[in-house]
Amino acid sequence: MTNETIETMLNHRSIRFFKEETLSDEQIATIVRAAQSASTSSFIQAYSIIGVKDPEKKALLSEYAGNQPYVLKNGHFMIFCADLHRHVLAAEMEDKSAEEILHSLESTEKFIVSVIDASLAAQNAAVAAESMGLGICYIGGIRNELAKVIDLLGCPSHVLPLFGLAIGIPEHTSDLKPRLPYENIYHEESYQPDDDIMKKQLAEYNQIISDYYNSRTAGKRQDRWTQQMVSMLSKRSRMTMDQIVRQQQLMKDERQ
Amino acid sequence: MTNETIETMLNHRSIRFFKEETLSDEQIATIVRAAQSASTSSFIQAYSIIGVKDPEKKALLSEYAGNQPYVLKNGHFMIFCADLHRHVLAAEMEDKSAEEILHSLESTEKFIVSVIDASLAAQNAAVAAESMGLGICYIGGIRNELAKVIDLLGCPSHVLPLFGLAIGIPEHTSDLKPRLPYENIYHEESYQPDDDIMKKQLAEYNQIISDYYNSRTAGKRQDRWTQQMVSMLSKRSRMTMDQIVRQQQLMKDERQ
């Protein structure tokens, strides 16, 4: 049971080396239109996409993202933002005072809605690009220096850049990385209540991931997935996120 | 510039009436595997999918979601959850104390990561289903009664249901709903600094949306988009979200 679209998705791997050939405006338009076709919560369309071509700006973004060269060297770079700014403009256009909507607009609920909307649009963009033979890589690294990114892109209140998407003609290919076991991700009727079953699945997955690295590095690397995760999570990174989100006037609920 | 995959995405419309024919296990597996193939932040795979077939459980979910009949009547119903629970299990497997990772795990940053991961997976599931000739509808309504949904599905700490996805054979089709103007969503080099330009785009869009309703309701409905948004945002809905997220031990940053 498969088709071209499903094959495209199953063949996804992140691409980190692109040919230096820029996307045409027509290619960009096709990708953005696919993004816009994604579902949106109550038609709110609470996201924006900022396309960056200027090499100096891309170099700065690359630096902010931890010197990832593929933020600079690609066919096009887009940044997906949670965006409730145009809804403030909508209130002005309807002659409503901002106060009437801000309590709802600046809630955790609406922030979650905007993150989901931006992500659904981005994944359509990613799949559209891949279906055209292009490669993609999501860049969460822009959140390393998010205040600087907000400043560089001139994002007003109620707009928060979430991640970048590097797109281009692949300069290489890479291996498919095995995902978590199906049963570990997909639960039936209710959340898997038995942690021991989940741990057994994770132990089997550790073996698959160790074998994956082992065979690709001639034995130099044999990390387990659980080890990678614990190593990542024992570092405290981007701990100012809550503060930056609220500086952008999002998720401002008073906590009890 | 188009292909089958892009056509599938451009033809998306939400389907709210499905034939009473359940998806085969093979169809479900194909959809879940497509979901799992989506990008994930640093390989964290911070989401789970709960598939619900039990008609009694679906009836309850339908009630919680504001009596949406298509939550009960469809080919399959899935709930996408932000999930950092298995990463706590990973720490136990690596003989680390939970304390070593919880500060990072329970941060706003990691909550955002898990919402993005769940949404990217969901959009792959949606596109995969549509590429197979099925229809879909996202169900944000489960957040109306999220505490009850968490209880019904037995979600442990660090797991938060975000939205449902109803899938099935379409019983009808509906019209494509025009999206916001391209230039309103897609900005170049930086966020559009001129609110007047954005308002002009929104005014043009209002006309398109009014015409859309007008022609489909023989003049009975002519709402503007800005009017719909302001009407929605002047109601305070799901204002306990911040509290529920923190009850699930997510996004627990101390606020300054």
From TrEMBL, chains A, B:
<dbReference type="Pfam" id="PF00881">
    <property type="entry name" value="Nitroreductase"/>
</dbReference>
<comment type="similarity">
    <text>Belongs to the flavin oxidoreductase frp family.</text>
</comment>
<dbReference type="InterPro" id="IPR016446">
    <property type="entry name" value="Flavin_OxRdtase_Frp"/>
</dbReference>
<keyword id="KW-0288">FMN</keyword>
<keyword id="KW-0521">NADP</keyword>
<keyword id="KW-0285">Flavoprotein</keyword>
<dbReference type="InterPro" id="IPR029479">
    <property type="entry name" value="Nitroreductase"/>
</dbReference>
<dbReference type="GO" id="GO:0016491">
    <property type="term" value="F:oxidoreductase activity"/>
</dbReference>
<dbReference type="InterPro" id="IPR000415">
    <property type="entry name" value="Nitroreductase-like"/>
</dbReference>
<feature type="domain" description="Nitroreductase">
    <location>
        <begin position="11"/>
        <end position="167"/>
    </location>
</feature>
<keyword id="KW-0560">Oxidoreductase</keyword>
<protein>
    <submittedName>
        <fullName>Nitroreductase</fullName>
    </submittedName>
</protein>
